[in-house]
Predict the structure.
Amino acid sequence: MKLILNADDFGLTEAANFGIIDCMRAGTVKSTTIMMNQPGTKHAVELYHQGLVPEVGLHFTVTSGKPLSDSADVSSLVDDKGYFFDKDVLFNRDDVYIEHVEKEFYAQYNAAIEAGIDITHLDSHHFAGVYRPLKQAFINVSNELGLPVRRVDNILPGQTRLCVKTPDIFEEGFFAKGANIEHLKALLLSYKETHPNSTIEFMCHPANENTEGLKQLSSYNAKRVEEWQILTSPSFIDWLQTHDIECVGFKSL
């Protein structure tokens, strides 16, 4: 079985960036996805250009920070101060314009390209590309770019319009209460039994320190350090090898 442990939130903070780099050095994480509008984005780009990040995708973000487009051009995505709506607000709106989503998607993708990043795959922060107000636009741009993506049928069923490669399965269980070593092993062994020849993607969110900056930006903070500890653990790396689970990135698709 092949396992993609994709590290989300590259660029969120330096602690997240360093945690992701550590997991890549350990060999468990082979790919990550970058946020282009966060405090740690510049630092993430610097790490990429140091050759420390083998595979970087775009973590399309419309629920945190400000857009890279002019706010007036993506008005259905932002509040009156020009910030993206909170996810619980955005995902329940019925007046989100596809054109606005596509414009901001391309703005973030082009910013990554202009920063010298070779984008290898796509996903979305808080599963924005999965929810109904944004799903059609996410699929449209993904098809136009022709890059592999994280599956978009894990919350709302259906991705038949998606014409690019995806992992066989996406698993979101390594998160929050599920971000512990025994639960992770149990999930992996279950998939190994039922899908031995498949490529399974697990999201992860490692950080090497629970800093004040991280606490301010994300309610998911202390558990990131626990994820980092698990994914850099020599005993876990040995366990993966013992059970013939190969860690790969999106380029393997």
